[in-house]
């Protein structure tokens, strides 16, 4: 019986690199897939990457109302100089980093614990009901969240103060106290997002082989031991991924929430970069300064992500890429 003759390798055209010919043939072969992807690529270029490029340009210009980006005067680093010469900026940066770290530290572990608890529930109906209950606050706007928090902690008719008064204790002005501002801020943010943050961990938990739990049970491991021996190693890569991305928000303290929660009485504790940009960029029409601050935040966030990814790969062997 005659043996099949292998096909001769394709020969690139004279003068053309082999890799280029292969790429072009691949594009032609899958041209329908590339055509389907084209609208997506156009969307991201026009509505995502082009605005980013414009923002980088605006950060180095003096943008005025009625003038286009390219017609505005080039001012170099003057916008960054305005930010760092402001006498309030040191306190603003300190508040931003402190509140951001509080959000990361306080808000990082509860979703992992809650996801493990959901994963270990044996009742499917109870699990779905509880998951729906903790997901709902994520869909509330910060205005609604502030209304709920105000109903609990306001001085006049707040539920907590009514309970304190019934117990013979004096009322507390929670919204005018610098000591209570950050606990209320972080606590309400945690309540809003804890359920939604469990989704990625539940997806990771679903990929763990059930036979590993059976083997651990045969070896005599209890529920707590199985968590440390099977569950946590199984989701370590996802935990590392989420932590590295969270570090990128080190200069983003949640300005939308703080704008609703803060007031003059707690300004020294609550003033962060986003609120400073809101005052300087909108109230004083310094759009270029606000854009320069946004660029500064993004660059610092990128550096922190790169550093966190390097440390994670060195000590855990896992990272974002």
From TrEMBL:
For this protein, the parts annotated as crossing the membrane are 33-59, 100-118, 139-160, 227-252, 285-308
Q: What Gene3D superfamilies does this protein map onto?
A: MetI-like
Q: Indicate whether ATP-binding appears among the record's keywords.
A: no
List residues of the ABC transmembrane type-1 domain: 93-308
Q: Where in the cell is it found?
A: Cell membrane
Mode of membrane association: Multi-pass membrane protein
Could you tell me the keywords of this UniProt record? Answer: Cell membrane, Membrane, Transmembrane, Transmembrane helix, Transport
From what superkingdom does this record's organism come? Bacteria
Q: Which family does it belong to?
A: Belongs to the binding-protein-dependent transport system permease family.
What name does this protein carry?
Answer: ABC transporter permease subunit
Lineage at the top is: Bacteria, Bacillati, Bacillota, Bacilli, Bacillales
